[in-house]
Amino acid sequence: MTSLTKHYPTIEDAIGRTPLVALQRIGAQDNQARCNVVLGKLEGNNPAGSVKDRPALSMIRRAEERGEIRPGDTLIEATSGNTGIALAMAAAIKGYRMVLVMPEDLSIERAQTMKAFGAELILTPKSGGMEYARDLADTMVKQGKGRVLDQFANPDNPRIHYETTGPELWEQTEGRITHFVSAMGTTGTITGVARFLKEKNPAIQIVGAQPREGSRIPGIRKWPEEYLPKIYEPRLVDELVYVGQDDAEDMCRRLAREEGIFGGISAAGACWVAQQIAAREHNATIVFVVCDRGDRYLSTGVFPA
Fold first, then answer.
1. Annotated catalytic residue: which of 41, 50, 52, 94?
2. Which of 41, 76, 134, 166 is deepest in the core (most CB within 10 A)?
3. At a CB cut-off of 8 Å and minimum separation 6, what does 12 contact?
4. Could you tell me if residue 302 is inside a domain?
5. Would I find Amino-acid biosynthesis among this entry's keywords (predicted)?
């Protein structure tokens, strides 16, 4: 950084401290009757458009501090989309070559965004899902083609949510939060936030959104046992709620039309779960993560043309 710019913030400084907003119409009558409030954490406000901006920069920064990587190295990561975009941005900031391995059926917007940040893409067969992509990334590392940060096993993923996202929620709700709802993919968000909130108040309920059998919801996964993320701490999650694809997609449209919140499908799935919790609770402050923006799902058909 030159002497002329050192006093100004950089794009890294724009990550985090995202708004927390109350839903005003969806479920409003029942929530008022039950004295509940449902709040969305707008992680799409991060510069690369998702909650994954936090761990992407964290994983690179911490690996640099440990001397494991240095600018100019090649980084490889298997991704379903948002982490890939965030890592592509972080690699551009820090000066790394970024190779992303992803299933071929993911939205064209996400692939184009990764390329815009300078990342190289390797598309894997749809039939293999994320499991095949993860296996291929590991094989490439063994062949000496680069280094995997491994969002699924890297403690720097949940660590950044423990250090930033959790404290933000505690401060923004003035300690009133009673339930935290997150879609579960790599499980970094739910693990890190849960660890922080449980230290503040063990009574806070941590709820994970999982896909119902047969549902394909980008960003929400129910992993086979052998692929379960190593960073996941089941003891921190009080409840798993299963959401169907139709329910998530319908809520995605409702959030845009009724609340003006243009979120993605997994964010809507978490909102649907938050509404199920609100329907059974009283005097609750329920927070769900709006993990990304809806514009990266336009080609999927979830929004009417």
1. 52
2. 41
3. 57, 93
4. no
5. yes
Which of 103, 121, 148 marks a domain boundary? Answer: 148
* 191 is known to lie in a ligand binding site: no
Q: Which of 95, 114, 148 is the last residue of a domain?
A: 148
What's the domain range around 228? Answer: 11-46+161-297
Clarify whether residues 41 and 186 are in a common domain. yes
Tokens encoding 304? 């009417």
CB count in 10 Å sphere of residue 123: 14
| Per-residue pLDDT tens over the stretch 194-253 | 999 999 999 999 999 999 999 989 888 888 888 899 999 999 999 999 999 999 999 999
What is the pLDDT averaged over residues 180-185?
96
Model pTM score: 0.94
Active site annotation includes 126: no
Q: Is residue 259 part of a domain?
A: yes
Q: How far apart are CA 61 and CA 164, in angstroms?
A: 15
Residues 166 and 135 grouped into a single domain:
no
The answer to whether residue 266 is catalytic is: yes
CB contact at 8 A, 202 and 233: no
Pick the catalytic residue from 58, 80, 182, 266: 266
Q: Is 299 annotated as a binding residue?
A: no
User: Which residues, 6 or more positions from 293, have their beta carbon under 8 angstroms from its beta carbon?
Assistant: 44, 49, 50, 262, 263, 264
Note whether residue 90 is domain-resident.
Answer: yes
* 178 among annotated binding-site residues: no
The pLDDT score that the predictor gives to residue 1 is 56
Query: What letter would DSSP give residue 280?
Result: T
Domain count, the chain: 2
Given a cut of 80, whether residue 34 has pLDDT beyond it is yes
Mean pLDDT value across the chain: 95
- Cα 43–44–47 angle (5° rounding)? 100
